[in-house]
């Protein structure tokens, strides 16, 4: 059984064959391990005709740390895994007794399937092209410029443009404040 992250046709969302998406709760930080364990159990217990897909919803995020830009996969719903399956006693047993699974999300002991529009929105969010940029400074925070013509100048963050990866810093020189637009990598936060 393979987990495909390609675009889904609308027929995969129709519940005419009994397939629905369910959410399982896991120990925090164990989402990928639960996914791996469940995929293994599906194969060894021959449940491919009952349990179809197992997804840990993630999105790409660009993290800037120590002047370095790196792409990380951030979990959209920490502690939760999505499972596409036909709900019956056997499939419930296989999923529920997978190591790391604490419960199904639902009312009481009864798992509640996700609405198709919710699933489509989650899968679309995972497919977004441009990763989000996560920065460690905020508007009003003191920063030091580390690159470019204003290297070693200190200023205050005036605006952050996440889409363009730019920050506007108010720098004081010649007794006046002037805005300078810089790349996220050209500034570092000053420790308070």
Automatic annotation (TrEMBL):
Keyword tags: Transcription, Transcription antitermination, Transcription regulation, Transcription termination
InterPro entries per UniProt: KOW (IPR005824), NGN (IPR047050), NGN-like_dom (IPR006645), NGN_dom_sf (IPR036735), NusG-like (IPR043425), Rib_uL2_dom2 (IPR014722), Transcrpt_antiterm_NusG (IPR001062), Translation_prot_SH3-like_sf (IPR008991)
A GO cellular component annotation in the UniProt record: cytosol
Residues in NusG-like N-terminal domain copies: 18-126
Chain ranges of the KOW domain: 136-163
GO biological process per UniProt: DNA-templated transcription elongation; DNA-templated transcription termination; regulation of DNA-templated transcription elongation; transcription antitermination
Recorded family membership: Belongs to the NusG family.
Purpose of the protein: Participates in transcription elongation, termination and antitermination.
PANTHER family linked: RHO-INTERACTING TRANSCRIPTION TERMINATION FACTOR NUSG (PTHR30265), TRANSCRIPTION TERMINATION_ANTITERMINATION PROTEIN NUSG (PTHR30265:SF2)
Official protein name in the record: Transcription termination/antitermination protein NusG
Native species: Kouleothrix aurantiaca
